[in-house]
């Protein structure tokens, strides 16, 4: 055999051998070594399986769990929504090692460790690298970036979604809710999928407040983002086979690339409109909303402050997606829970009338909605993604699975026994949610305006099936019946309270909350003695003068 022939055979053989060694090193040796080291430190977990890791097990467990019926009153979503984590936590302890394909995942649910990782004070825990598909969804948006880029982008987002900027958004939120309520006219008593309604509302709100456009303008972006996020979620536990995935693109990958390009083009179109207005002299700046700030930063002459085109597009995608999906879920689940727990619906309605009467919500009142805050916290405890900790009976007690907003009556710190890691629906530390106040403000406005007009009951057609997508979603929507509140009933909310004040003899005085004006009126004529908790917050606990009861029947507090 000639030397040339030998080379022709040997060279490919060498390549093949090196490739094989590298493959076995990456897909066998490294995982087994990591597993061994972790095991020797006491971290156990389901054993690594060649190439697939534990993905097949996860898929099987999820499929099995999804067939089990779920209770509407005991919110034990953990075993259904994350059956693999639930099962492995019980088998291997609070911290365990599992395998997403060849990627080792250390799952931690010990509160102290969770706090340490999320606070990340030593900057020791970088954000995980996104998957190929994941990077198409959020690109270089705030959720994904690190270091100087994060500082730059976080500063802009902080400015846009807090303080005065947020206060200035309130009229646009109210106007968007009014549009939704107009749509509801004539639907009274009929079945309605409120989850879909809130999808339109939240899309409209983020479009108007952050991007200065209507839902219609952003509609294409929302539709494409929705499709793209469904593809990303569908592929979280899909194993990528080495080499083959590089040579052959799956249908999902091809579609995600098209969607990625489509979204980018639409975002660029919206940005270009702003730039054109400045270029033609129609506007003297790019605008005061979030998009305006971003375009401004994209044109910044100072290179350190400037955003790249990739950053700009990623940031728009992130806020379109995060601004809509999250609040959609929060509103949907809160309405579902209030439709089931009518006593809490009534308490929330009373508070809304006491705070706003028939008027639209205003910033000062929104900040003082105590009952509504308790209800939203309890909803987030049930549906936020921190499922393991939010469902831990050791942290919350035996009633952990029940809907009990009263556990938040004295604030989050008291409810969690000052354990920050027991309840953190918006994350912890520097990377916690930048949209938290925006989200809760929007939800409070929408809920207040609905409660002022409607009572809500759950339709018998509703099928309870929460599924984990970007957040926890109701797989079949939320079918509700909305009944118009009678004018007389609205009046009664005020009159019942007044009656109790004029009847100091009545034994069971409820904890009544009045507007400042009402209270001053009764104080002036000497009919009232005030017991005030938590000044300067309203509502106050108000008791008739000399009343022997010093117990508030609403929040079950003894006040001395
Ligand atoms: C109920 C509503 C919401 C919930 C439960 C929620 C939850 C969270 C959580 C848990 C994180 C931390 C993620 C991590 O540690 O990696 C986060 C981050 C973030 N959220 Fe939200 N969010 C909500 C609403 C919003 C809204 C309305 C926006 C935008 C307007 C938004 C934008 C963001 C962004 C950009 C980040 C990344 C922050 C950073 O890394 O600096 N979120 N959110």
UniProtKB/TrEMBL annotation:
Keyword Transmembrane helix in annotation = yes
Matching Pfam families, A to Z?
p450
Record key words, sorted: Heme, Iron, Membrane, Metal-binding, Monooxygenase, Oxidoreductase, Transmembrane, Transmembrane helix
Q: What sections of the sequence does the record tag as coiled-coil?
A: none
Q: Does the keyword Lyase apply?
A: no
Which sequence ranges are marked TM in the entry?
Answer: 7-25
Instruction: Give the location in the cell.
Output: Membrane
Against InterPro entries, the record matches this protein to:
Cyt_P450, Cyt_P450_CS, Cyt_P450_E_grp-I, Cyt_P450_sf, Cytochrome_P450_Monooxygen
Required co-factors? heme
Subcellular location, principal? membrane
Would you say which domain of life the source belongs to? Eukaryota
- Which PANTHER family does the record associate with it? CYTOCHROME P450 CYP749A22-LIKE, CYTOCHROME P450 FAMILY MEMBER
Q: What family classification does the UniProt entry report for this protein?
A: Belongs to the cytochrome P450 family.
Designated name of the protein: Cytochrome P450 CYP749A22-like
Q: Which organism is it from?
A: Hibiscus sabdariffa
List the lineage, top down.
Eukaryota, Viridiplantae, Streptophyta, Embryophyta, Tracheophyta
């Amino acid at each position: 055999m000639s030397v040339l022939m030998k080379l022709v055979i040997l060279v490919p053989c060498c390549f093949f051998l090196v490739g094989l060694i590298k493959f076995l090193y990456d897909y066998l040796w490294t995982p087994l070594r990591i597993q061994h080291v972790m095991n020797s430190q006491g971290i156990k977990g389901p054993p690594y399986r060649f190439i697939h890791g534990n993905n097949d097990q996860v898929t099987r467990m999820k499929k099995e769990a999804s067939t089990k019926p779920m209770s509407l009153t005991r919110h034990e979503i953990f075993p259904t929504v994350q059956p693999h984590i639930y099962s492995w936590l019980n088998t291997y302890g609070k911290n365990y090692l599992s395998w997403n394909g060849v990627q080792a995942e250390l799952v931690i649910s010990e509160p102290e460790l969770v706090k340490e990782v999320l606070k990340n004070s030593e900057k020791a825990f970088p954000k995980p690298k996104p998957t190929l598909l994941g990077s198409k969804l959020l690109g270089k948006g705030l959720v994904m970036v690190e270091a100087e880029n994060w500082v730059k982008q976080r500063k802009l987002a902080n400015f846009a979604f807090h303080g005065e900027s947020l206060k200035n958004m309130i009229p646009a939120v109210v106007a968007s809710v009014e549009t939704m309520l107009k749509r509801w006219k004539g639907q009274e008593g009929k079945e309605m999928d409120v989850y879909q309604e809130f999808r339109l509302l939240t899309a409209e709100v983020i479009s108007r407040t952050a991007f200065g456009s209507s839902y219609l303008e952003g509609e294409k972006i929302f539709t494409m983002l929705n499709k793209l996020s469904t593809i990303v979620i569908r592929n979280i536990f899909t194993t990528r086979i080495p080499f083959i995935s590089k040579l052959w693109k799956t249908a999902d990958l091809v579609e995600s690339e098209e969607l990625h390009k489509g979204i980018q083009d639409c975002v660029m179109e919206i940005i270009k409109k702003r730039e054109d207005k400045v270029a033609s002299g129609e506007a003297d700046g790019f605008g005061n909303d979030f998009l305006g700030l971003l375009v401004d930063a994209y044109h910044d002459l100072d290179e350190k402050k400037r955003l790249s085109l990739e950053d700009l597009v990623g940031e728009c995608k992130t806020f379109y997606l995060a601004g809509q999906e999250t609040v959609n879920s929060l509103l949907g689940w809160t309405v579902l829970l209030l439709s089931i727990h009518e006593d809490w619906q009534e308490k929330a309605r009373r508070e809304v009338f006491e705070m706003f009467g028939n008027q639209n919500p205003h910033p000062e009142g929104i900040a003082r909605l105590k009952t509504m805050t308790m209800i939203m916290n309890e909803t987030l405890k049930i549906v936020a993604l921190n499922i393991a900790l939010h469902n831990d009976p050791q942290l919350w007690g035996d009633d952990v699975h029940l809907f009990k907003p009263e556990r938040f009556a004295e604030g989050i710190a008291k409810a969690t026994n000052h354990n920050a890691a027991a309840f953190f629906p918006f994350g912890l530390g520097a990377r916690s949610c930048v949209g938290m106040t925006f989200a809760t403000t929007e939800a409070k406005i929408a809920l207040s305006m609905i409660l002022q007009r409607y009572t809500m009951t759950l339709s018998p057609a509703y099928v309870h099936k929460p599924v984990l997508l970007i957040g926890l979603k109701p797989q079949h929507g939320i079918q509700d019946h909305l009944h118009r509140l009678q004018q007389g009933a609205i009046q009664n909310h005020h009159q019942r309270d007044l009656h109790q004040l004029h009847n100091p003899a009545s034994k069971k005085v409820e904890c009544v909350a009045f507007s400042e004006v009402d209270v001053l009126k009764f104080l002036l004529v000497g009919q009232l003695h005030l017991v005030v908790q938590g000044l300067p917050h309203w509502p106050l606990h108000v008791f008739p003068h000399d009343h022997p009861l010093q117990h508030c029947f609403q929040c079950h507090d003894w006040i001395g």
